[in-house]
Amino acid sequence: MKILAFESTCDETAVAVVEDGRKILTDQIFSQADLHAVYGGVVPEIASRCHVESISILAQKAIDAAGITRKDIDAVAVSYAPGLIGAVLVGVNFAKSCALALNVPLIPVHHIRGHIAANYLAYPELEPPFLCLAISGGNTILVDVRDYTDMKILGATRDDAAGECFDKTARVLGLPYPGGKPIDELSKTGDDTKYVFPISHVDGNEYDMSFSGLKTAVINLAHNCEQKGETLDRASLAASFTKAVSDSLVPRTVKAAKELGYKKVVVAGGVAANSRIRADFKAAAEKNGFELYIPPLKLCGDNGAMVGAQGYYEYLAGHTAGSDLNAYATMEL
Ligand code: KG4
């Protein structure tokens, strides 16, 4: 089954063709990051307009690159939540029109379910159930993936997402948006013990997280240094900050895996590209004897292939939509 899949929830317009949920025939991505970088973050209206400009061009490009014709498309899948509402609406409306014109089923896909499904593309042998930590620019959640379309949130951030925290810290360090990758690079030459930052702890649910305290600690440190006329060791700040994020994420995930008896741990989302977090998860997997699945870098960030992968399983579960499908800024997993 060939699915034409659309992703437009933030600042990437992406269109892919995926076969049977596991094989990428093409994955076309147009990143708007450079357009937003001058503003230090995503400007929603610019994002929406840019999606409008690029989505039809990318759709044709995807069909050509996959070596198929429109007649070969069996279904259309689209990220319909959560995300910047104007941006999501562009993808949803375009996908609805495609499904109508091609007379094929329309499959709504939750964006975070898509991130999780990126791992099905990278690891053909991976099947639920497993534990998943989904860490992106807008979400940070620990999920019990009981089946392809049956998931339970065990814990989530109560404030900022991990990616948001990377982006804000990057701004303090004068690094460009999106800040995750530049912090990753800078941290490689730093000393992660030089600055001590708070590890996220919240009362009530041990699997819930918080990153706003860490963000404030970074801002305060930078201001204090400036006021005292001291030179900030930017590389060590980046390394110490990344260590604090990783120490908030990895032990919690390990604890949940042990408690639920899972031997398979999956990491997903843009922040899963972080080299320190990847290394810490790898070490934890070796130490605790679980199989670790993290997508290759190109499947960590937003892409259309992940939507096509999850779309396949949503279709098998009978989750299709009519032409009245809407877009949503927020939605339970
Ligand atoms: O999954 P994603 O592409 O978009 C959302 O669905 O939100 O995630 C984007 C986030 C941004 O905050 C970006 O700074 C972060 O992922 N990111 C990273 C790295 N690469 C991207 N964070 C840490 N280290 C990285 N190497």
What does this entry look like structurally?
The chain has 333 residues and is of the alpha/beta class. Helix content is 45%, strand content 19%. The protein is built from eleven helices and ten strands. A five-stranded mixed beta sheet has the order 3-2-1-4-5, with helices on both faces. It has a five-stranded mixed beta sheet with strand order 8-7-6-9-10, with helices on both faces. A hairpin with a 4-residue loop joins strand 6 and strand 7. Helix 2 packs parallel to helix 3, helix 4 packs across helix 11 and helix 5 packs parallel to helix 7. The longest helix is centred in the C-terminal third of the chain and has 27 residues. It is globular, with a radius of gyration of 20 Å. The chain binds 5'-O-[(R)-(carboxyoxy)(hydroxy)phosphoryl]adenosine (KG4). The site of 5'-O-[(R)-(carboxyoxy)(hydroxy)phosphoryl]adenosine (KG4) has 19 residues, from helix 5 and helix 6.
Quick overview:
The chain is of the alpha/beta class and 333 residues long. The chain has eleven helices and ten strands.
Bound molecules: 5'-O-[(R)-(carboxyoxy)(hydroxy)phosphoryl]adenosine
Uncertain spans: none
Mean pLDDT: 97
Largest sheet: 5 strands, mixed
Query: What fraction of the residues are assigned to beta strands by DSSP?
Result: 15-25%
Envelope shape: globular
DSSP helix fraction: 40-55%
Strand order of the largest sheet: 3-2-1-4-5
Tally of contiguous helical segments: 11
Please compute the radius of gyration using only Cα atoms: 20 Å
Number of E-type strands: 10
Order of helices and strands: EEEHHEHEHEEEHHHHEHEHH
User: What class, by secondary structure content?
Assistant: alpha/beta
